[in-house]
Write a structure and sequence with these properties.
The complex is a heterodimer. By secondary structure, chain A is an alpha+beta fold. Chain A has 11 helices and 14 strands. Helices cover 48% and strands 17% of the residues of chain A. Chain A starts with a helix and ends in an 11-residue tail after the last helix. Chain B is elongated, with a radius of gyration of 31 Å. The chains are: A alpha+beta, B alpha+beta.
Chain lengths: 405, 434
């Protein structure tokens, strides 16, 4: 295929060529970044919470006096435990995808001069560690005498279990077992085990690095840990158990209020938690589809105009021996060249847009793969859009050359 | 002349329906997408109390210790018990109200309604006159009720509908947390969005069900929800919030003149200096005094997703415009023959330019109408979204005008370059070629 005649023809239509290339460039920039954002959202919803979500449910009640805490805990735990199919019921302050409960700034220095990390502390009563199904990667399981009394929101001195990502952040390259950290100055905690994963209650709310910065402390339920429970059952039973739980609560503790917003199976809580991300991904997909459609329509429009404008020239080429295939390929090659120009410009624009997004949102550098993928999509789109007008051009009979108008 | 151009333009647009249709579609889609997102942005960044918000301020002072301190650091968003009470009692502003939120178990007298949690705002007497809260029945409480820790309550219109079928319930009893309260007022239609005075329950949260005198709520140990930010070694015992180093209160003041604002700011500085000298504040005076709109801006209440969507839609509009420029160029250049005949017959370049722009304008008008329909559809889709702001996304008159203005401007802009190119035809050359 001769490219020189195409280029010299395009030089005579600089403005129209530039417009299509510009449109492709803009489409390329938006396409790359929108896809990148969609994938980022998608990955967020795939987050590994580290717990057996399919077998767990969280039950929260409110509206009781602190004085009645011990009694309420006993009634609730035995009531929830008696539901058919429940494997265990235990007290816990919150769960992944629940509400923020024990968010604290912690320090490696007893004087608390510098906050090393803001973490979520899970306070779990007896049985909750096993029920969560978290994976222990180092250290030991909580023993009966690890369950510390809560003094003021948190225990004063306790054995704790931290996640691997938190341990790596606090003590990079060191063995975290037996290390100390401090909250509120006098509260001292010592690491007894390391967990593979345990997401914070609202993962992503404090940035992408801290999704797993959780601490588990075994505690004795009491006034500071009342009214929120973890229920474990087989995955097939959990929805029914959750429905039954409401009736059981009404029976064993008629004066408390069942908190419907915060209670639910962990799968449901997770679904609700990521609702906005999914909605945003849908919006982005809509924008991409509309963008590709408009770009394709623009190419169809301009290509049709060119074909009509060049009917006579096409006729002459046909008359002096060009085949239909030659004419078809001419328009296809022309489109390929214009789209390629657009893509070159688009790559620069895409990177510029990515830099702007990086300033305002939590996104990373745009990987090259996205540029390549959107280049391929745009090449295909261009070829598809130009096919109709090009076929019409190929159908121009040689006799047109002999007509005057 | 205008009528003649209009006639010509309509005639010409009709001649090539596909190309015209494509242009209208491109403009409509661009306008539809941008207006949907811009309307959401407009609604979300709206003024919650038009006419009043300019004179409402929220003071911030800095009682924190020196950990993590750097000059210029923002003071905490909320006030501690000691500071909030001091500012309230000082009465240095025209009006002032201290407030925080919580959930209160409500035991309805009607056996048909189960007990539930009411969203409560615990506040002081000036809240109602300061924010211009309208009342359907009765009115708010006075300073005497605050001092006496009176068991009175103001309820929302929605709760009044739910419990009393919308009838005048003033004087009736309401049981909150097992205690009897007397209803003294029922709110009228009042839904400030964003929920500026209490952002911790969500920036576009539903309104409160009940309003309880602040000191009464502390007296009865009503639950406090929202953030409690503590420093030092005191911990944050929820039953002892009066004595701990925590900020957990919101405070708003009404300051009507710039002099009053300046005076209040220096009052805050003096207070901080005094507390610093006494050794209670470790940091040197660090105060802010923001009005409603500045506060909303500082708190970044508009979700970042919404901004992102608006930028996406605007870049989509730009793509649509470039597309329209290309299509118009095709359309106008195709008529080079016709245009050169008109030039040869004596039409000036300006006349041709005007006529071509008229065509672009018509495309803009039609595109605007179609875009408006698309935007209405888009807003309906937004309202189906789960976000808490979704339900308030509605088109208003100003955005309607903006839609058409944007659409016509966009299409005229898109027409400029092609029209200018088409007018520059050299009649003789073109006529000879044909």
């Amino acid at each position: 295929m001769e490219i020189r005649p195409i280029l010299s023809a395009l030089r005579r239509h600089r403005l129209a060529t530039l417009l299509i290339a510009l449109e492709i460039a803009l489409a390329c920039a938006v396409l790359c970044n929108a896809c990148f954002l969609i994938i980022a959202r998608e990955q967020r919803t795939k987050l590994n919470s580290g717990v057996d979500e399919r077998s767990l449910a969280f039950v929260k009640v409110t509206g009781f006096d602190d004085a009645a805490a011990r009694d309420l805990n006993a009634r609730m735990l035995s009531g929830l435990g008696s539901i058919a199919g429940v494997q265990s019921a235990s007290a816990i302050n919150t769960v992944p995808f629940g509400q923020n409960a024990g968010t604290v700034g912690m320090s490696l220095d007893p004087a608390m001069k510098h906050i090393n990390a803001v973490v979520d502390i899970y306070l779990g009563g007896p049985g909750s560690f096993r029920a969560l199904g978290v994976k222990l990667v180092a250290g030991r399981l909580p023993q009966a005498d690890d369950y510390a009394p809560i003094e003021n929101y948190f225990p004063k001195d306790a054995q704790i279990w931290v996640t691997r990502s938190l341990a790596d952040h606090l003590w990079p390259g060191e063995n975290p077992l037996g290390k100390d950290f401090y909250c509120f100055g006098p509260f001292r905690y010592r690491v007894a085990g390391v967990l593979d994963h345990l997401a914070i209650a609202m993962p992503g709310s404090r940035g992408p690095y801290s999704v797993d910065w959780s601490v588990f402390i075994p505690v004795q339920p009491g006034p500071f840990l009342t009214g929120s429970y973890l229920v474990r059952a087989a995955p097939g039973d959990i929805q029914r158990v959750m429905r039954d739980a409401r009736a059981v609560v009404a029976k064993v503790a008629p004066d408390v209020v069942f908190d419907s917003d915060e209670s639910g199976t962990l799968s449901d809580l997770r679904h609700t938690y990521f609702q906005n991300d999914r909605a945003m991904a849908r919006v982005l997909i809509g924008v991409i589809v509309a963008l590709l459609l408009v770009t394709a329509l623009g190419i169809v429009g301009l290509a049709s105009f060119w074909v009509q404008q060049r009917r006579k020239q096409i006729g002459i080429r046909r008359a002096i021996g060009a085949t239909r295939g030659d004419i078809l390929r001419y328009f296809q090659t022309e489109n390929f060249l214009i789209v390629s120009m657009g893509i070159v410009l688009g790559v620069i624009l895409a990177y510029a847009l990515n830099l702007v997004l990086m300033k305002a949102y939590e996104v990373t550098h745009l990987p090259l793969g996205y540029l390549l993928a959107s280049a391929i999509v745009l090449w295909l789109l261009g070829q598809l859009a130009v096919l109709g007008p090009a076929l019409r051009a190929a159908a121009v009979p040689p006799v047109v050359a002999t007509r005057s108008v | 002349m205008f009528g003649y151009y209009l006639d010509l333009a309509v005639h010409s647009l009709k001649r090539n329906k596909v190309l015209t249709g494509l242009m209208v579609l491109a403009i409509a889609m661009g306008i539809g997408a941008s207006m949907t997102t811009l309307t959401v942005l407009h609604v979300l960044s709206g003024d919650p109390l038009p006419g009043r918000s300019g004179s409402l301020y929220t003071p911030q002072i800095d009682p924190l210790d020196l950990n993590n301190y750097a000059p210029g650091v923002e003071p905490p968003d909320q006030l501690s018990w000691i500071d909030g009470n001091y500012l309230l009692k000082a009465k240095r502003a025209t009006r002032q109200a201290l407030m925080t939120e919580g959930m209160v178990p409500l035991q309805p007298a009607q056996p048909s309604i189960d007990p539930f949690h009411a969203v409560a705002l615990y506040t002081t007497a000036d809240f109602f006159p300061m924010f211009g809260v309208p009342f359907q029945y009765g009115n708010g409480w006075g300073n005497a009720d605050d001092d006496a820790k009176a068991r009175v309550v103001v309820i929302s219109a929605k709760l009044n509908d739910k419990l009393f079928g919308g009838k005048n319930s003033v004087g009736k009893e309401l049981r909150l947390q097992e205690k009897a309260f007397r209803i003294i007022g029922v709110l009228g239609d009042w839904h400030p969005q964003p929920h500026f005075y209490q952002l911790y329950m969500g920036s576009y949260a539903d309104d409160e069900d009940i309003f309880v005198p602040f000191f009464t709520s502390r007296d009865l140990h009503m639950e406090h929800d929202g953030s409690t930010d503590c420093w030092g070694n005191s911990g944050g015992d929820p039953n002892n919030l009066e004595h701990v180093n925590c900020t957990w209160l919101q405070f708003w003041v009404q300051l009507d003149t710039p002099q009053a604002v300046a005076a209040y700011k220096s009052f805050l500085v003096n207070y901080s200096q005094e507390q610093h000298d006494n050794g209670r504040f470790a940091r040197s005076p660090n105060v802010r005094l923001r009005n409603v709109m500045q506060w909303l801006d500082y708190q970044q209440v508009v979700p970042s997703d919404t901004r992102l969507q608006a930028w996406l839609a605007i870049s989509f509009l730009v793509v649509c415009l470039v597309n329209t420029v290309g299509l118009m160029l095709a359309k106008f250049m195709r008529r080079a023959g016709e245009l050169s005949v008109r030039r040869a017959l004596g039409a000036s370049q300006r006349a041709l330019f005007g006529q071509l722009l008229m065509e672009s304008g018509i495309v803009g008008c039609v595109g605007g109408v179609a875009g408006l329909l698309l935007a209405l559809l888009g807003l309906w889709l937004v309202r189906q979204q789960p976000a808490d702001y979704a339900k308030i996304a509605h088109m208003d008159a100003s955005m309607l005008v903006v839609t058409f203005a944007l659409s016509i401007c966009a299409s005229l802009l898109a027409g400029l370059l092609p029209a200018w190119r088409a007018c520059r035809v050299t009649p003789a050359l073109q006529l000879k070629a044909n």
